[in-house]
Design a protein that fits this description.
Length: 490
């Protein structure tokens, strides 16, 4: 079940699958009516109704819209009771904000592991230490709930704009919407339009939003207004890329959308839906929002039965020593133990080591780096999985990793060694034999046999202690059974 289905189910008791399109002509008519509105209070109500209708999934309403004249549409926009909360936008898989480094394209690899950890370790609490756009928490909410309906969930990020965004949407959703509507109203009055299409328009809006945000930050105001400004800016910045200075709490936006990516009235409507949708999401599991440097909260978590989701700033892929991925995190670094000169991965990894020793669970994402791999094998005994990934801005491939600890007991894991490395070896030996044109000798076959036996050994171990196989081994179960069946009985 994905997040949208989960929330639909929790709120409605069933899942709406269908969506019903509105004629483009009617959408444009709605837009023209909205553009003419001079009174903010009326605009605020109308825009919210519009946002829910055009992204709606209520067939009766949509049928009505498609048949309606301008005066009926006006009445719909004026409907004081408002339209019921809209669950349909989820079809678009909208993350709350576009965010540089977000996990929105890497949802599946982690999820399988998280599901596995939840199934096998008795997790009471989950902490997304570097929450960002929150996809790791949001994508797995259904699993958290499935394995423990009372799961305590914490989302932390030291970027105060991020944390206050969650907090405000959770607690002051109407105020956030009101502030967002004010911004759209301002934009409409400025351009007599509800689309952003030209470079000039973009520049003007960006400048306005940044100036307003700066005033908020100088005054230390992280209110619903700040949140509305922040969400708006993230949406019109390419890839949602920002730099955040944790000391001055200031933001810099260096790459904006341009006219080749017009931002339309429908996009604004989608944001409105997201604000209300994520209000439900944050409240349904009563997620706790924290704004802190992870260093200040991790120690307390290490004594508990907690699953840590660890998606820290990435190590530079090509760098000799570990650095963070180019954003401004220097101010927060504890330089005592440091692989490189920016975000202190080593410090973080050492915490994970303690967590593991106390039988805590975690899953950690990063770019592949030899120092991380070394730490993983030598100190952590974790599963270290490489995933070929395209760079966001080119077709070049790099290796990302996730690593996790999956419990039987610490002793079992030590005994088992590194399953993933052996799987890699087995697959490699198989491919050699399959693709080889020259004649193979006995030694080659012995290598393959050894690699195979290593895999079978793991499967044996899991079966001996009556544990389900971890997902990486499942695909070898059939051949393992056939092999066992072929052995003579003693
Ligand atoms: C790679 S992003 C996380 C992306 C996130 N998983 C998502 O799906 O959007 C890293 C996040 O860590 C935050 N961060 C960086 N240093 C931190 C620190 N010392 N403590 C807490 N958060 C930090 C950044 O603000 C950023 O949002």
């Amino acid at each position: 079940m994905n997040l949208y289905q989960f929330i639909q189910f929790e709120k409605l008791g069933h899942i709406e699958r269908e969506s019903f399109p509105i004629d483009l002509k009617k959408i444009n008519l709605f837009r023209r009516i909205l553009i003419k509105e001079k009174d903010f209070e009326i605009f605020k109500l109308n825009f919210k109704n519009y946002a829910f209708i055009v992204k709606g999934n209520d067939k009766k309403t949509i049928d009505n819209v498609n048949l309606s004249t301008e005066s009926t549409l006006k009445k719909m926009l004026d409907y004081k009771k408002g339209f019921p909360f809209n669950y349909q936008f989820g079809q678009e898989k909208g993350t709350l904000i576009p965010y540089y480094g977000s996990k929105k394209n890497r949802r599946n690899e982690g999820n399988e592991v998280i599901n596995y950890i939840l199934e096998n370790d008795n997790i009471k609490k989950v902490c997304d230490l570097f929450a960002g756009a929150g996809n790791l928490t949001f994508d797995n909410l259904f699993y958290f709930h499935k394995y423990n309906p009372n799961m305590k969930i914490i989302m932390n990020d030291f970027n105060i704009y991020i944390s206050s965004m969650y907090y405000n949407i959770q607690n002051y959703v109407d105020e956030v919407y009101e502030e967002y509507a004010k911004l759209i109203f301002w934009l409409k009055n400025e351009f007599n339009e509800l689309n952003l299409t030209t470079d000039k328009q973009y520049q003007k809006v960006q400048q306005y939003l940044l100036e307003e945000l700066n005033i908020q930050s100088i005054n230390n105001d992280y209110t619903p207004k700040t949140t509305a400004l922040f969400i708006f800016l993230q949406h019109i910045s390419r890839n949602g890329k920002i730099s955040y200075d944790s000391e001055t709490k200031s933001l810099e936006y260096d790459s904006f959308r341009n006219e080749s990516a017009p931002y339309q009235c429908l996009n604004f409507a989608l944001v409105v839906n997201k604000i209300f949708f994520y209000h439900e999401v944050l409240n349904i599991m009563d997620i706790e929002i924290v704004n802190n440097d992870y260093n200040n909260i991790i120690k307390a978590l290490l004594n508990e039965n907690v699953l840590l989701l660890v998606d820290s700033p990435y190590a530079d892929y090509d760098a000799e020593t570990l650095k963070s991925g180019g954003e401004n995190y220097q101010k927060n670094v504890n330089t005592e133990i440091d692989f490189g000169n920016n975000f202190n991965q080593s410090n973080l990894l050492n915490y994970l080591k303690i967590h593991q020793e106390r039988k805590g669970s975690f899953i950690y994402w990063n770019n592949h780096h030899k120092d991380i791999q070394f730490f993983s094998t030598e100190h952590l005994n974790t599963h270290y999985i490489k995933i070929p990934t395209k760079y966001a801005d080119s077709n070049r491939i790099k290796q990302e990793i996730y690593m996790y600890v999956q419990y039987l007991t610490i002793e079992d894991i030590k005994e088992f060694g590194m399953i993933d490395e052996d799987i890699e070896e087995y697959e490699y030996q198989k491919s050699l034999i399959k693709n080889c044109e020259i004649e193979l000798n006995e030694e080659d076959f012995a290598e393959l046999e050894q690699a195979k036996q290593n895999i079978y050994y793991y499967i044996d171990m899991y079966k001996t202690i009556n544990k389900d196989l971890p997902f990486q081994l499942l695909k070898y179960e059939k051949e393992y059974n056939e092999y066992k069946d072929g052995l003579p009985e003693f």
